[in-house]
């Protein structure tokens, strides 16, 4: 969809946070039957960060949020809305309200969006809609996940992939418009290809009553790697091309491409399919692994902090993952100075 220019959307600042605990492939090979060579060849991952037991997703999200606020020269009280994109909440009812309290944003509405690795993109577009209606001025969007706590550490097909992290962005209304176009998709018929399912069991009390009392628990991450790869390599390039068409741009206009950091082979395949030079593909998966909803904002923050993004740069951002969901947006980086 092409965005209206009635009210502009500006990405004012970014922030990120990752845990201090670093687990490299050599260390992982002592836990599960694998090796650095095996992991690197199949994923491009060399290491990942794990959150300590005594910390939560709120701790990571708070650090990323406060950095973004500091860079934006805003106080928490100036925030109107907080959107937390995560699939690993502290509380099944949501964690955004806890984040709101943790950073002292007492005037902000707060809610979660659960869309796995597409969560940050969907949250960014959701924030843009609130701004375009004139409802809110300053919005904090955080993508954070701690999926290391949801993997089976005896399953080498999944435990090697995931790391923990958080990334944040401050979105503000503006006379300039950063977001040029977007495209969001869902294919629920393939939801079973990547999931964390809830398993029910009968409650012991059930034998004393005819009422079907049940309880249960969530299982570990389950993934059909081959199908997820095929899905990403097929759908992401198509989504990018549609967004380029909406924005009346072509591949050669792109300055940077920031994809969800799921697997280096996926990044390479998407680049090859679209004939995008590898020099334009942002990749940090070797250092962080797959941080789910956090991967895109962490990558965006890194290139922003390193001074790689210049005024007028055209950036395509694309996420994909469980649901199955995928989404793309094209941004033109604008300086308000």
UniProtKB/TrEMBL annotation:
Q: Which GO terms describe its biological process?
A: fatty acid biosynthetic process
Where's the Beta-ketoacyl-[acyl-carrier-protein] synthase III N-terminal domain? 111-188
GO MF assignments: 3-oxoacyl-[acyl-carrier-protein] synthase activity; beta-ketoacyl-acyl-carrier-protein synthase III activity
Where exactly are the transmembrane stretches of this chain? none
Keyword field: Acyltransferase, Chloroplast, Fatty acid biosynthesis, Fatty acid metabolism, Lipid biosynthesis, Lipid metabolism, Multifunctional enzyme, Plastid, Transferase
Tell me the compartments it is located in. Answer: Plastid, Chloroplast
Task: Give the active-site positions.
Answer: 117, 260, 290
Q: Pathway, per UniProt?
A: Lipid metabolism; fatty acid biosynthesis
Gene3D superfamilies assigned: 3.40.47.10
Documented EC number(s): 2.3.1.180
Q: What is its main location?
A: plastid
Beta-ketoacyl-[acyl-carrier-protein] synthase III C-terminal domain span = 244-333
Report the SUPFAM superfamilies cross-referenced here: Thiolase-like (SSF53901)
**Region (ACP-binding): which ranges?**
261-265
NCBIfam families recorded: fabH, PRK09352.1
Job of this protein: Catalyzes the condensation reaction of fatty acid synthesis by the addition to an acyl acceptor of two carbons from malonyl-ACP. Catalyzes the first condensation reaction which initiates fatty acid synthesis and may therefore play a role in governing the total rate of fatty acid production. Possesses both acetoacetyl-ACP synthase and acetyl transacylase activities. Its substrate specificity determines the biosynthesis of branched-chain and/or straight-chain of fatty acids.
* Family recorded in the similarity comment: Belongs to the thiolase-like superfamily. FabH family.
Kindly provide the name given to this protein in its UniProt entry: Beta-ketoacyl-[acyl-carrier-protein] synthase III
The record lists the organism as: Galaxaura rugosa
Gene for this chain: fabH
